[in-house]
Amino acid sequence: MTAKVWAITRREYLERVRTRWFLISTFGLPLVLVALMFLPNYLISRGGSGDSSIRVGVVDLGRGMSEELGRTLEEGWIVKPLESSAGDTEGDLRQILLRSDLDAVLLLSADIGEGGEARLLTRQAISSRQERAMRLGIRDALVTVRLRERGLDEVNTDWLLRGADLQVTRISAEGEQSREIFQALALVFAGVTYMMFLVYGQLIVRAVLEEKTSYVVEVMVSSVRPWEMMLGKMFGVGAVGLTQIGIWVVVAGLLATFGLSGAAAALAERGIDLSQLRFPVGLFAWALTYFVLGYFLYAGLFLAAGASLSNEQDAQQVVTPLVLLIVVGFVLVISVIETPDSPWAVVGSLIPLFSPMIVPARMAISHVPFWELAVSLTLLVLSLLGAAWLAGRIYRVGVLMRGKRPSLPELLRWVRHG
Amino acid sequence: MTEMAIRLQGVSKSFGAQTAVDELDLHVPRGSIYGLLGPNGAGKTTAIRIMLDIIGPDRGEVELLGSPVDDAVRERVGYLPEERGLYQKMRVAEHLAFLGVLKGMRRDAARREAERWLERMELIDRANDAVETLSKGMQQKVQFLSTVLHRPELLILDEPFAGLDPLNVDLLKEIILERSREGATVLFSTHLIEDAERLCDRVCMIAGARKVLDGRLVEIKASAGRQEVALGVDGDADFLRELPFVVRISDHGNYFEVRLADGADPQELLRAALEAGVAVRHFELVEPSLREIFLDRAGRRSADSIGRTGGERAAHPRLRASP
């Protein structure tokens, strides 16, 4: 690496690390990630307890379940038995609901549970949590009624329906692994890689465009070669990304150390022995390797895109396909985490555009055979060299071009003559 | 070491159907201050970009400081592009140091030089401000500094005075002359002929992608084939009408503008005046201005070329020199 590439790398790095953007994204992105992972569940559980109780009138046409239902329905529902002669068509129920001060009316058909159904009419929309409570309430009430019909009065339905926790442990050369932790780790790897590729890809595009729109590029081109500019940019922007990841790892490490030791007793109760948890150094090294290689592949593509354009509007159009590729990769990862050894997962591990996200995720939860790793890495390195070559040619011509977006044939001519 | 700081031989460049530079030969001797003249869009900027290997020529050879343009040569050249541009968020001194390092300086030396120059330009108190906080004129000065920071042997300046106030134009000229005295070669382009006339010892004129004039300023003027003398006398000036080499006289009473024949010696006029016993108050050789020569040549040239290549060139009388 020449002194000039180093100088450009240094500039790109320092100018970005000093910005407010760096501070905001370093601490903002993990918050967004955590929010995406936990917020929906949190909101659902919070929203549930905030529901006001629904008063439901029950028309029972057959098995005398309304009383049981009153017991089995969790809080959130208040049961009011109605005369069975009140009506049995939907029209009747509608009349009842509209004339009363009830929030909902439930019709239990005569042969409920044996092919017959339960119908619920409500004035307002109910939450999925309340609907689930109703579904379970009807099931439990049915169980109680069925048991009673067979003469088993005093059976506790909770006890009857209780299952057992299933603990899955994979035995490998590295020792026992708890599946949940490594699934979470796979998701974190893929999530971080996904986010970083998206954010830093667009950052590179903007950096190239900024150079063109501010006309700095001509001074640069008169002093250094295009490939030196290009490498300096890739290294500099990439180093910013690695710094960010470094900060996250350190902070996460500190939080985990203090957080986990505090919670050791609680975890031990749930069967997780902290002394057996080892930091998977090899796994992190592989994840980092794939991240860096994948970064260079996408950086090359984004750089070429940026160099071929001269304004932000055009940039959005050309960058969109690249962004979609990254999104597809992440979607694949989510299915790969479910079935890490499926043919899909194997194919995805070999495609360089997706492998940086898929392979580390697979390695976290399953065993990736050596040949797959070898082929995947070879293809990735070859294609990143190809992308750098392509970007270099487009960059050389495009970096001085202004005005209209080049057509595809024009781009190909740049590549040939670049 | 060859004598030429810049050598262009038969350089041509077209953009699509437009010819930006047509068979340009340019020889800039070391140590000279060379003016590249021509109207807007004549091909000056394209020629300069070709010199610096920013764009490649379609045909022709380019040598800077005696060899084809490579990394080592680039470090010995300072370049001010026509379209100025700096990283807007960068701090001024840091930016200068950065550009210095790209020209092969050590970081600390570049930093020192940057501060020295900022001092001289009265910009030292802005050294740690972001470039974007500077006025346009200040930014231009900073960019000019970046071209001399590494003490290049060759300065290539594209329209260096455009957009500057007279005070700063003088400051830049002072530095250009100073660099020249220390042995640097300077080539600058301008569409303002007066700039070139005062500063250059050699000029090259381009019009419509072609060279119309090239050489030492004094020789160009001498060969322009026009000599005029402004004469102020006390007494009778009738002797003027006797002289065979006088072509035309404009009589303003005590003051005469006298056009001499091609090749005549103005000293003969002075001698004749003394022999006639006339007291000479004022005797001045009036050189034709570069502007008049240029308009002469550019006009004649385009007339020629229309005759030679038919209507083709006439259809593109002004060739855009982009990108």
Please give the structural blueprint.
The complex is a heterodimer of chains A (418) and B (323).
Chain A: H1 3-17, H2 20-50, E1 54-60, H3 66-72, E2 77-82, H4 90-99, E3 104-108, E4 118-122, H5 128-149, H6 157-161, E5 169-172, E6 175-178, H7 179-213, H8 216-223, H9 226-262, H10 264-269, H11 281-307, H12 312-338, H13 343-350, H14 355-365, H15 370-398, H16 408-417
Parallel strand pairs in A: 1-2, 1-3
Antiparallel strand pairs in A: 3-4, 5-6
Helix pairs in contact in A: 1-9, 2-9, 3-5, 7-9, 7-11, 7-12, 7-14, 11-12, 11-14, 11-15, 12-14, 13-14, 15-16
Chain B: E1 4-15, E2 18-29, E3 33-37, H1 44-51, E4 59-64, H2 71-75, E5 77-80, H3 92-102, H4 107-120, H5 136-148, E6 154-158, H6 166-181, E7 185-190, H7 193-199, E8 202-207, E9 210-216, H8 217-222, E10 227-234, H9 239-242, E11 246-251, E12 255-260, H10 266-275, E13 279-286, H11 290-309, H12 312-315
Parallel strand pairs in B: 3-7, 3-8, 5-6, 6-7
Antiparallel strand pairs in B: 1-2, 1-4, 8-9, 10-12, 10-13, 11-12
Oligomer class = heterodimer
Q: Measure the end-to-end span of chain B.
A: 33 Å
Overall 3D form of chain A: elongated
Strand proportion of chain B: 25-35%
Instruction: Quickly count the helices of chain B.
Output: 12
